[in-house]
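We treat protein structure as text, and this decision shapes the records that our systems exchange. The tokens are whole numbers drawn from a learned vocabulary of local backbone shapes. Below, we set out a record of this kind in full and without editing:
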Amino acid sequence: MLDALLNVFWLVLEGIWMAIAYVIAGIICFVLIVTIPFGIASFRIAGYVLWPFGRTAERRPDAGVGSAIGNVLWIILFGWWLALGHLVAGVALCLTIIGIPLGIASFKIIPVTLVPLGRQIVPSRRMYA
């Protein structure tokens, strides 16, 4: 229940805007044809950015050298400015007490933004007592 409530606040305050940025990056990647794998990763992250609470990003065990090289190119082309967007939004959200959990979620997404290849989005494994 708490995840759903946080996701609604997130969607309004940051999620929709950052998802649009990821979709724009993905479209640019698809237009350039050679960077289509980056576009797929960008669309995957856009879905994660829309509804991040209750999900997390994990490394794929089958990711290899290709994803590492691709991540370096991604950082140069798109990753740094998307990560900067999350950083600025996270700091702005942390200025209010209510926004602190949303700001922390924004910071949590930065590593995925910088190195999206070789990662998968999975449900969080929380232990409830």
Summary: The mean pLDDT is 89. The beta strands are 55-59, 119-123.
